[in-house]
Amino acid sequence: MRIADCGLRNEGEPRGGPTSESSADDGSPLPASQSAISFEVEARLPGGGGRAGRLTLPHGVVETPAFMVVGTQATVKSLTPEELRGLGTQMVLGNAYHLYLRPGPDLVAEFGGLHRFMGWDGPILTDSGGFQVFSLGFALEHGVGKIAGIFPGEDARAPARAQRPKLTRIDDDGVTFTSHLDGSAHRFTPEVSIAIQQRLGADVIVCFDECTSPLHDRGYTARALERTHRWADRCLAAWTRRRDQALFGIVQGGAYRDLRERSARFFAERPFPGYCIGGSLGKDKADMHHILEWSLPLLPEGRPRHLLGIGDPADLFEAIERGIDLFDCVAPTRLARHGALYTADGRLAIKAARHARDRGPIEEGCGCYTCGRFSRGYLRHLFVTGELLGPRLASIHNLHFIVNLVKAIRASILDGRFATQKAAFLERYRGGRAGAAAGAGGSPA
Ligand SMILES: [Zn+2]
Hints:
Helix content: 25-40%
Number of helices: 17
Structural class: alpha/beta
Radius of gyration: 21 Å
Bound molecules: zinc ion
Distance between the termini: 39 Å
């Protein structure tokens, strides 16, 4: 559907219950000709769950696996849509919580929806606000965040950030929270989150869920999971723009095998066009691998899976190998703004004095605009003097690196070189010859 047609005109359409429109043949929520989404698996890894595919959405095709860039405030910080296209971006993520607070979904709808408002005509996903509620709540209490500290066992700084008062109150109907901007009170329910996302108009919207912390015990995680499941059915019932928006469910359950399996089965039985793996991914990377291995085989093969908030280069290989199709993560741009740059030899801290006279690019052979034109010495100068161009050029390079790494992984699945490419990449990347691991690039916080 054209953007101009989006608006809210579908809201008055009769809607079926969660399963009333199911197709008996493929389990999709609508006949393919009427659905906002189609997904086709093109190639699979031998003996594993990994695959390459094509995801067709109202605003274009996404070749998967794919990394979507994060545009929290309806902008990928400092970059234009043309620059995003130029570095290979296929899909952008917007944030329902932040856009609800500013400028508000009604204002975005007045401009014809998020695509027109931000000048990006490709596919967009909005998240539901559930994670931001998590961030305002026990993430402050428990000292865990989405990037630094999402795996508390790997972040020695976590305790220092703990024990701040939470700004949210969760009940069975929804969440009351305090705006981080002005302290005003707000309330999200599943219906409110879906209504906001429908007004924003992204190609993919996601269920409103309760995102638990790695430090929550099994009892709390189980209760939160049941609430998330009840909310998912309410999201399905509230989802009316089925012909031009796809609603993804979010599999939760923390690092508990039975809960993850229960959640995957719950979502697999419902007519969601796709799925996210969300919430606590455990205390370390091994937990995350187990969570993917428990959850993904239980989800329908023919629907896309998005791993929320993960984008470390090594994690991309591991998650793709286990069957993840879509990623988003703020790390590439956040690290860039701190002068931490991805290279095949690990992260490079551009502010280090040793780069002052370096006339070479960030990375030899990189096809990005930044590396084609500027030296490490000049980039270091921009960062040392606090010039705006520094973070912009660094963001272009880091996003180019991650987006095209995932494209290269996709190509390796198609031509049967995945295992050798993974081994070669990880050996060199972990070798860390770029030498940033102990420097400014060590933390994105
Ligand atoms: Zn580059």
